[in-house]
Amino acid sequence: MSNPILRIDASVRHTGSHSRDLADRILTHIDSGEVVTRDLAAGLPLINNDWVTANLSDPVKRSLEQNEFLKFSDSLIEELVVADTIVISFPVYNFGIPAVLKAWLDLVCRFGLTFTYSDKGPEGLLQGKRAIIAMASGYTGASGEGDFASTHLRYVLGFLGITDVDLVAVDQTIFGEDEALARSVEQIQTLRR
After folding, report:
1. Would you identify the CATH topology of the domain 5-189?
2. Coil, strand or helix: which one is 36?
3. How far apart (Å, rounded) are the C-alpha atoms in residues 60 and 75?
4. Contact yes or no for 165/85 (Cβ under 8 A)
5. What is the pLDDT of residues 124-141, one digit of tens each?
6. For a pLDDT cut of 90, what percent of the chain falls above it?
C-alpha cells in the first residue's frame, strides 16, 4: 500500500460545500488507501514575530519556547512529507484562496524543511509527490482571468517541489450549477488513478 493521501479542506462550510463534495468524488475515483484529513475550517494560527524569529534561528540553538512555537508547523510538514498525494479542496473567496489556506501555506513553507536555495535558485524539497486541486467558485473560471486562487496554489506547490498538479473545478456555478457539476465529473474521469 502506498503512503497516505493527505486531504486538506479549506471551506468554512461543512454541508453544501462544492469543494468538499469535489474532494470526496476525487478520492473515490482515485481509489485511495489511507486518507489523512486536515480540516482547516476551525482556523489555524497565523505566523507572527515569535514564530518567524524561531523559524529563522539555528535549529540546534533554538530554545524550548522557540521549538514550541514551531511544533504545530512541524506536524503539518510531517503530514506533507509522508503523503504521496495531496488533495486540496477550497472555494474561491474574492478571487483568491481562503485566508486559512494561506495560513496553512505560511506554516508549511519552511527553509530547510520544504524548500532550500542553491546557486540555481529555489529548490523544493517535496519532489515526487502529486497534488490535486479541487476548486469551487461561483463566478471565477478555473485558470482564467481573475483566477488568482489555483494559480497561486499551483505556484507555491511548485516552489515546494510538487510539480505534478491536476486541477478539477466546479466553477462559475452562477452561470449554471448543474453544468458546472457535470464538467467537474468529466474532469475527474480524466484523472489517473
Report:
1. Rossmann fold (3.40.50)
2. strand
3. 18
4. no
5. 999 999 999 999 998 888
6. 84
